[in-house]
Design goal:
Largest sheet: 5 strands, antiparallel
Number of helices: 8
Structural class: alpha+beta
Radius of gyration: 21 Å
Strand order of the largest sheet: 13-14-19-16-17
Helix content: 25-40%
């Protein structure tokens, strides 16, 4: 089996995403790893078992799709403790494989000023998908069609009730997850809940991009429908003045079909938004921290389109603010700050990553 392993990086914010693809068995893992014990003088834990991988994997015979979110600590002896799965698609065999793998990891402990300290890792999102024909189980499909029948008849409460049962369906495959998300996004759009709608659409994009990166023959969404989803995400991002995020979505549209009418329309909308916003001295938007599971830390990120920026009006608790750039580096920013931050010279492709208490609201200013 060929494998491109993820990097061990413990001092990143907990929602930083890395990919590890296992070929030719078409599995994919998303690793979001970070340490809560950040600060000056902290040296992260190091592997002590040659060749050990912090990214769990399954063997080539494993034919069920699954995803889950877990956290764990590395104690002062370098051992894994407090390992816990917080949410899962309900495939118990995968849960046990992941638990066994992570529990067996061994490290030299993290240190601060030369003394061993415990650090917390996670949340980690593990996703295992396969390149197989996309089908729904008969019972799931029946409920799915029932929900759409309610929706088309404008019986939205009934549609929502069936959709919740699909969300809780144990052991659903990735295609069923995508179908559930399409339903949930449609209901959120009808309820004018832009945040929930975008969350569901983003999860669909996660699955399709993993399939694309692995050169799957079996997509999760047909191309025309996928372009419509990307266009909808782009519209939501522009409406929220997330100009940098919208540009990344537009780049995705262009890469898939630059000559499609939907792409050309999105390009025009992007240009109009840039003309409208770039002349404003202070472009402000409201953000909200969201948790991956109940009780987890809230997270939020956005691509920056200006060098100067500042956070104000926090209603709740912001624990950390992190600047991450494709070209340049990573930097934890001092928060709160009375003066605007500035991207260091030469750093490009930068995004802002914020963590704190879930549901915390704040205003982000991007300034000339």
């Amino acid at each position: 089996m060929r494998c491109r392993a993820t990097k061990n990086r413990y001092l990143l914010p907990p929602w930083r995403v890395f990919y590890s693809f296992h070929l030719p068995f078409f599995a994919a893992i998303l690793l979001l790893a970070g340490a809560s014990a950040q600060g000056a003088g902290l040296v992260p834990p190091q592997d002590v078992i040659p060749g050990q991988s912090v990214t769990p994997t399954l063997d080539s015979s494993y034919a069920k799709e699954a995803w889950l979110v877990y956290t764990y600590d590395i104690d002062i002896r370098g051992e894994v403790v407090n390992l816990e799965i917080h949410t899962s698609s309900g495939v118990t065999e995968v849960e046990q494989r992941v638990l066994d793998h992570v529990a067996a990891l061994r490290f030299s402990p993290a240190t601060r000023d030369g003394q061993p300290v415990k650090v917390s890792l996670g949340p980690v999102v593990f996703t295992w998908i396969l390149d197989i024909p996309r089908v729904m189980a008969p019972q799931f499909k029946s409920l799915y069609e029932q929900a759409w029948s309610h929706f088309k008849a404008q019986q939205y409460d009934a549609a929502a009730e069936v959709t919740r049962s699909l969300e809780q369906w144990p052991g659903r495959n990735a295609y069923e997850e995508v179908k559930y998300r399409i339903l949930a996004a449609s209901l959120a759009s009808r309820d004018l809940d832009d945040g929930a709608e975008q969350t569901h659409l983003n999860r669909i994009v996660d699955f399709q991009e993993l399939a694309d990166r692995n050169n799957f023959n079996n997509p999760y969404v047909v191309e025309n429908q996928y372009l419509l989803m990307l266009d909808r995400i782009h519209s939501l991002q522009l409406a929220k003045k997330l100009l940098g995020d919208a540009q990344l979505t537009l780049n995705n549209l262009i890469a898939r079909d630059r000559d499609a009418q939907i792409t050309l329309s999105a390009q025009k909308a992007q240009q109009e938004a840039q003309s409208r916003l770039l002349g404003i001295a202070d472009v402000s938007l409201v953000g909200k921290l969201s948790a991956l599971y109940p009780g987890a830390q809230g997270l939020w990120e956005t691509q920056l389109f200006r060098e100067k920026f500042l956070i104000t009006n926090a209603a709740g608790t912001i624990a950390s603010v992190h600047l991450s750039c494709k070209s340049g580096g990573d930097q934890r920013l001092i928060y709160p700050s009375a003066v605007s931050w500035k991207i260091p010279p030469g750093w490009q492709g930068c995004k802002l990553e914020i963590a704190g208490t879930s549901d915390t609201r704040f205003t982000l200013h991007q300034q000339l």
